[in-house]
Amino acid sequence: QVQLVESGGGLVQAGGTLRLSCVSSGNTWVINDMAWYRQAPGKEREMVATITYGGNTNYADSVKGRATISRDVKYTCTLEMNELKLEDTGVYYCHANYKALGVVREEYWGQGTQVTVSS
After folding, report:
1. What is the phi/psi pair of residue 28, to 5°?
2. C-beta atoms surrounding 62 within 10 Å
3. Pairing mode of beta strands 10-13, 113-118
4. For residues 23 and 3, what is the distance between their CA atoms, to the nearest angstrom?
5. Considering only CA atoms, which of 119, 60, 57, 65 is closest in space to residue 92?
6. Are 38 and 90 in contact (CB under 8 A)?
7. Is residue 109's pLDDT more than 70?
8. pLDDT tens digits for 17-63?
């Protein structure tokens, strides 16, 4: 099993900067891709940013140019976002997957960390 623990959420002013961290533990050797998702009140969970084991990144259009996802030592994942907007408010979840032969076999989620952007 893999455990993911997020930190860094809280109350941030619009226009400010956010830095979220996700630390993995357990069978971390199985982790391939890591990602950040978020869920705003009354909305579905959406992808914010992803990073492959090799470091390739992908961002949602809503955060492109404002967000940077990175991995340290492969199993710790960080999301930095600047120019925060009210619509960035939500619960942010760390996600990881295990792939075999190119197919996702298992997915792992953190408990989530609340981010609230105030005006």
Report:
1. -65, -20
2. 13
3. parallel
4. 8
5. 60
6. yes
7. yes
8. 999 999 999 988 888 999 999 999 999 999 999 999 889 999 999 99
71 has which bridge partners?
77
Scan for tokens 């960390």, then name that residue: 113
φ and ψ at 17, to 5 degrees? Answer: -120, 145
Give percent of the chain above pLDDT 70: 98
For residues 102 and 97, what is the distance between their CA atoms, to the nearest angstrom? Answer: 11
31-39 and 57-59 as β-strands: parallel, antiparallel, unpaired?
unpaired
Residues 6 or more apart whose Cβ sits within 8 Å of residue 102? none
75 Cα distance to chain centroid: 12
Instruction: Estimate to the nearest angstrom the gap between the alpha carbon of 109 and the chain centroid.
Output: 10
User: Are 4 and 78 contacting, i.e. CB atoms less than 8 angstroms apart?
Assistant: no
Dist. CA 4–CA 94, nearest whole Å: 7
d(CA 76, CA 84): 23
How far apart CA 28 and CA 21 sit, in angstroms, is 16
